[in-house]
Design goal:
mainly alpha, 0% strand
Length: 198
């Protein structure tokens, strides 16, 4: 009695452990049966001259048939357990897929969105990329402000008190000149020339 698995191939995928075990058991059974069939063929070619030789040949022939039947029965018995293993493996895969496809609560969806944004899962998230860019820009700005502060300190040290006083005096003189020019331009408009004849 053989269990034919050709119609049940949908249970096994080529990469599963159960399929690999099934293939190993099939190969072992086929090797054993091929060896015993070859021994039976050798018995047919053996020449016998006495009744005892014929009886021994028949006993060996029956023994080989029994061993072939035993190998097939062992395979069939192990195949039943194999089908159960494959069904269990397939059931676990279906359960995992069903769990992934199950409707999610709003809290679970929110957690997934947070994980996706922050990059907690596999890759970096969008938020962490943006934060990295901001950190780089902040570092550049702090370096630039430090450089500017150093330049200002150097410039202030270079200018002495006298130079500051001269610069202040020049600036004051310039402001006075501008004020005088404005006064000169505004006076003629305010005062009109009057002709008096006596």
């Amino acid at each position: 009695m053989n269990i034919n698995m050709q119609g049940l191939n949908f249970l096994s995928s080529p990469g599963s452990k159960a399929a690999a075990d099934r293939m190993a058991r099939q190969q072992k059974r086929d090797d054993t049966i091929a060896f015993l069939e070859k021994q039976k063929d050798n018995l047919k070619n053996m020449k016998t001259h006495s009744l005892e030789d014929i009886q021994r040949k028949l006993d060996l022939f029956e023994n080989y048939d029994e061993q072939i039947d035993a190998a097939k029965a062992e395979y069939n018995h192990s195949q039943m357990f194999h089908i159960l293993d494959e069904a269990r493996e397939r059931g676990e895969k279906i359960a995992e897929a069903a769990e992934k496809m199950a409707p999610k609560t709003p809290e679970e969806r929110r957690e997934e969105m947070i994980e996706e944004a922050t990059g907690v899962d596999k890759d970096k998230g969008i938020l962490s990329d943006v934060m990295d860019e901001l950190e780089e820009q902040i570092e550049e700005l702090t370096e630039m402000s430090e450089d500017m502060a150093e330049l200002n300190e150097e410039n202030l040290e270079e200018l002495s008190d006298e130079a500051l006083a001269e610069a202040d005096a020049a600036a004051i003189a310039q402001v006075k000149e501008q004020n005088n020019m404005l006064v000169d331009k505004t006076l003629p408009e305010k005062y009109r020339h009057i002709d008096y004849h006596i």
